[in-house]
Amino acid sequence: MLTMNGHAQTVTEEPAKLQKIEITGSNIKRVQAEGASPVQIITRAELEKTGATSLSSVIQNLSSNNAGALTGVEYNGFSPGATTASLRGLGSGATLVLVNGRRVAQYGITGFQSQFANLDAIPVGAVDHIDILLDGASAVYGSEAIAGVINIWLRKDYTAGEVKASGGATSKGKAQSKDFNISYGMGDIAADKFNVMGFFEHHDSDALSMRDINAYNSQDYRGFGITKGDRRTAYSVPGNVLVGNVITALPGCAPVNVAPNGRCMLDRFDWTDAVPKRGNDSIFLRGEYQFSANHSFFLEAGVTQIKTNLRFDPQFYANDDAGTFTVAGGKNYLLRTGDLGGRAVDVKDTETRIIGGFKGALGSWEYDTAAGYLQSKVNVDQRGFIITDQMEAALANGTYVPGAANNSAAVRAKISPTLTRGGENKTLFADLKVSNSELFELPGGYAGTAVGIEYRRESTSDVDDQYLLDQRVYSIGGLPKLPFSSRNVASAYGELNLPVLKSLELSTAVRADNYSVGGNSLTPKIGAKWSVLPTVVLRGTIAKGFRAPNFREISPSVSVGFYNGQQDPVLCQTGNEPDCNISLKANISGNAALKPEKSTSNTIGIVWEPVKDYSVTLDYYKIERRDEISSLDITYLLSNQKDPNFAKFITRDKGGHITEVSLPYINIGKTQVSGFDLDFKGKQNLGENGKLNFRSKMSLTREYLSTPFPDSETVDYNKTYSQPEFRGSLAVGWEKGPWSHEASGNYISGYDYIGTPADSCKIDIIYGAPSSYCRVAATTTWSWFTGYKGFKNVELALNISNLFDTKPPFDARSALNNGSFPYNSGYNSPFGRRFQFSVKYAFK
């Protein structure tokens, strides 16, 4: 370049300033994505290649997700319709779910214990990426972040427009699904000073009947080498009658259901859905306006409605003292009320999220402040259940005759009215965060800091049907009325990031939380990252954590529930005793004096980038949770009842048979879980042959130690029932031109039949089953994705899940003991091979 006087002038371009981003686990923005804490990232491209139509199906396949999560198929639970996460197997209440770094509404109805976010209330099509923080984070985010954080980042600053439609079904044409979404955005913040975007998603999927799955579609398991494996029941439709000592089928029993001994049998799978019918509608809107060079206002609002329809077998009924027969008109009956229809639980969850705020910069300080309203409102209708006193009266006066086809509609309606339940969880919040990533200079760079305050008002209401509150519903307990309860939560926190050397970065955080009901907590965290070599980083953290007791846990009222299909190890010895299949009444009471659960978590790991575009991370974790709020696990209680600490919670009659158990909430237990996480990703350019992509995530549980009482023995649950030692995933993709393909696999190691280490496997004695069923086998499933972008503005995709139609491993504990699904629904899908095809069109 020449100046006006003719001298040459050298112009040096100023290097582009690297953009700083917020990483889950810290409120301080930074350039480098890797910090002291291990964070796994699922990109939008990876989400689309899974073909997932719900967020829960993505989270439940995480290698770090383990036992304790809800899958949405629990038709006999107290939180129907919900899907949750359980990082490290520490339960839904120990995993914090965020959207855009802020909390989401808690599910509107409570279970016996946990309160949690419903994952499927977040539309998967609006997700930009997901961060999984595999580290204790209460010092940054507060309560619940004991096992880790799932932070779901939604799309923002979106300026395109697209519409997408997809449909899917199993290889048998069952469980058909239809999805549609449309998104539109306009305005570039940098150029136009504004951005507005909107997103709508609709999902509808049919139920999958147990009769339509590719394996285990009958409760008669004798074909699996189990001599006593016929788990069909004589409590059938229309039923059986006892005359003398002979049980015979009532008229109207279908010939296929008449057993060789003349009894009418019922296969509950004829009435039960493996996967419920579900419909979702979501709308999400976001706008941002930059009203000056460094300041902007943002507003986001979203509403999601989820309808879930759970269907299962008709209610059985028995009114004699032994709980075996229905006595009416001088006859003894064994029956299920088929004329009342199968039982049904219809759930509608409406979730609302409205947040508005300001963000900007004042010099080197950045701020982000917002206020918002979060709500989950859940309504539940239950049909096909029996009002005990109405049934007894109708049997006594002859207006209801078991097995009769002409019982009047009026009598049936009186015996089995629709039961309703309504719950609501609301949160009003305000927060302010300020941060400075260039606070002062150190030898390794600029120190960074963040400080903030938060205020929340949480309130909840959960009111069960009056019939349930009065304990008038046969064989079903009710949760006591939880009228609108509320509490205030005030929090303050601070973080400091110190690059003391070019190769060494230290970080610290501390947070104070004050609950008006539920206690207080001060939780610190420290971390370090050391760049040993240009390609090798060592990192580690030590963090405290806590979980405040929820409203149900601190409520003074008593919840009554029933645990069906239980075994009393004391009296069940051969499998022929009545104590081998019992229904136990459980009285679960809250405790206003509960303290928060406390935890200590440690991580240490290595990040290695041997060559460009390849990286491997290996992290060791250890989490110890103390003062656990627990009402005791029923299986653990029965298995350890010889311990005086447990025996006092069991009530027996004069004959020694268990009549009920008491399960109060107390701060009592301790759990310690440790293991390793491996994360590998890479890509390889093949020149004219395209490029390859690789990614793999693996989690190995080293131990899962539980100490239920201070003076109880510590036992290791690792590899016991529903506690697999290892989970892993692998994906290999190839892209060339308009085509892209990916094969992906998921592996879950096997685990034992026994529920606790104190158990012994007696299925050979009780059920005549091979000893191989004392262990649930490992499982591997593969999926396939093909995408094509060769048409202008159009993308086509085909997803095939469970490519080889692998059936889930047989779960003898669930199938034989509990009479439930013959596979573990927390880990395995019943769909078999499933196809999904989608079309996406970009109109802007």
Could you please describe the fold and organization of this structure?
With 844 residues, the chain is mainly β. The strands form 7 sheets. The chain has a 22-stranded antiparallel barrel. It is 8% helix and 47% strand. The protein is built from 12 helices and 43 strands.
**Regions with little confidence, pLDDT below 50 for 5+ residues:** 1-17
Shape: globular
The structural class is: mainly beta
Main sheet properties: 22 strands, antiparallel, barrel
For the CA atoms, what is the radius of gyration?
29 Å
Q: What's the number of extended β-strand segments?
A: 43
> Can you count the helices?
12
Helix percentage range: under 10%
Strand content: over 45%
Kindly report how far apart the N and C termini lie: 40 Å
Mean pLDDT comes to 89
Q: Determine the oligomeric state from the structure.
A: single chain
Notable traits:
single chain; 844 residues; mainly beta; 22-stranded antiparallel barrel; five-stranded mixed beta sheet; 43 strands; disordered N terminus
